[in-house]
Please model this.
Amino acid sequence: MWRACSATVLLAALATAGSGCTNFATSRVVNDYQESLVERDLEELRLRSSAEFADRALRLPEAADDLKILRLPKGKAKVVEVEKVNSEERLVHVEIGDRKVPLDIELVRNPDGRGWLVDDIIVTQQRSRDAEGVSRSVSEQMDLLLSVREIMNAWESGERAAILAITTDEFGDALDDLPQAWLSQLAEQIGETGRSRSFRPEARMADERAIVVIPRSGGKLLLELSNVDGEWQVNDAAIESPREKEALTSARKLARLLTQCAAFLEGYGAQNREQLGSVTSSQLYENVLGVADLTAVPIPTQSLLQGSYEYRPHSNRADVLLSHEEDTYLLSLVAPLAEDDTTVERDANFHVDGVTIYEDGGEHVKSLASVFMAEAIVDVYAAALAERDRSRLEYLSSTDFSEKVWRRAGDNILEFLPMGEIEQVKPEILSTSYAEPVTEVTVKQGTRLLTYVLRSSRGRIVVDDVLLPVIGRPNSLKKNLTVMIPVYEFAYGMYNNDLDTLRKTSSDGMRRMIWSQVTSVPKIGWPVVQQLTAPIQKLQIQNDQAFVELSDGQYLARVRLQRVGESFVIADATLASNNGLHQVELLQAMRDSVADRMFPGETGRIIPASAERMLPEPR
Model:
């Protein structure tokens, strides 16, 4: 009995002694490690850490500096409790310093069997008294901070292999096909942090993603990171800067855009139409590059690919400027808008939509489309004018020209519109002047010199006007027809007794006083249609009014028009014989005719301006 009791007491004593030895050993490990942390003795920290912890948290010489960023508590460590996880692991709960900041230190047995090594440190941050604390692993935080250093080193190196090694597949694919000169420029823009002693990134982690903000001179670098198979890789980068040229919303989007520019230049240099078709807009390819002789406009593609670029973003469009000697090439790109109709997805496919060439330091400006297509467009347009082909005229004209002229001219008058200065012969090109977005092509067409004014519009070249050799009126065909279309429509209405057309082309006053009172055109004893369609002698546009003088040598008409929106309506006209002996005002003559119909045999009756009918006085 005594022997059994003695054995039990002995075993308990040995267990207590063993536990005390373990606590003493762990306390010593913890205190030694805390001292090394405070002193930031990297060599000692590595000796006292597990291989995994050293590799994740202490692998770079700069780890000592990054430990400062974590703001680990300073002071002597006091072991509060030691939990035995298993025979090879311990979890030590400690309090640091006078403020008793809690830390959890994970220990693992040294592989040589002697003592313990730190495998991780868990910091619990209490944001408020009531909120739960947030636990953060020092190894995870240090791994992220050191990865950021390695990432920045790769960008600073400018080496393709190094950069591709620290980027995700999605970002790397966008970077891989960039010309080395452009990759180096982008890498320099991202890698230039001016960090030296002030490298203090701010990081936010959430699962397998992290956002890192690195202060830099006059702004910030933002890195979007993804943890791929245990390694942090860059998924995108952005730069915030008050200087517009230095700001960058998405390096990944820029890389994809530049890749398209490079593919365009390579395809153009090799005259590879299939490649050009894949990187250009349908408008530019189908209307220009797919049919043009590319050798007619040489572009120094290799020189541009080896030079620098300038990037100018605009909503869903972007411009990339490339220089060669005194010339600058501007590549305009467009991408579809996202669902919100205001932004562009970073992986959206940009397509080259236009190329503008600034020659001799910008003294001469021309678009690729205008150089290739200007002469052909003029030939086709001249034929469409001769044939009065509305569909071709609308398609080949600018929106402004079409809306002011061709869409307003009814089929009933199109063939009669006054365009005598444009002879129905093929134009002979005399000269071409480029001032992008406008190109002026001067031609000899029959006996006259004309200038076709072309404009670049979304990859197309369209005709915006034709300049005529005239005196006494604007030389713009567009301005002339904008005024003359309502005159001819009015004449058509008079000739065909078409009151609907007359109401549409008349001022409010004429509609009230005349066309609302009658069922047919009043007879005034003058050849109105003949006078309104006589050759133009003078035409003036003054603010909201226009004045036209027409004469056939026998009769004269002076028409006054009012502007309504982008068009004009007839307000009144003076009709006269060419010798000036006879003259009448159209509106007054029609009012007299209407009054004579309403009150036959009575003279002096006046139709009120309100167009209200006057009842005869009772007898």
About this structure: The chain has five domains: 19-125, 142-248, 253-362, 370-469, 479-598. The mean pLDDT is 89. The radius of gyration is 42 Å. Residues 253-362 form one domain.
